[in-house]
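Good morning N.,

You mentioned wanting to compare the apo and holo forms, so I went ahead and generated the holo version with zinc ion. This is what I fed in:
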Amino acid sequence: MNISPIKQTITSVLLYQTEPEFIIAKSYSAIVANYWQWKLQDFNVQCSANTHKGNRCRNIVTTGHMVGLSKWIELSDRYCEIHESGVTNTYASLSKKQK
Ligand SMILES: [Zn+2]
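and this is what came out, ligand included:
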């Protein structure tokens, strides 16, 4: 069954009023879960590595500051500068200095 572009637009507008995250995610060919993660991380891409204590690293990946959803998805499995090079001991000593 073919739905006309106008009906698709009307459906999207109506759906946007109740579920805007669905329409936004769909416009980026993403899923709603990606949208919520993107928003939860303040539109930054958080490093995928874990710290020595087992917590997720809170650093932002290179070029991952305030990015759009499609870029966020593209970079979402990357690491920060410290974990990118595999120097986790440096990260531990940096964390202690920051406290
Ligand atoms: Zn990291």
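Residues 47, 49, 57, 59, 79-80, 82-83 surround zinc ion (CB under 6 Å).

Happy to go through it together on a call whenever suits you.

Best,
F.
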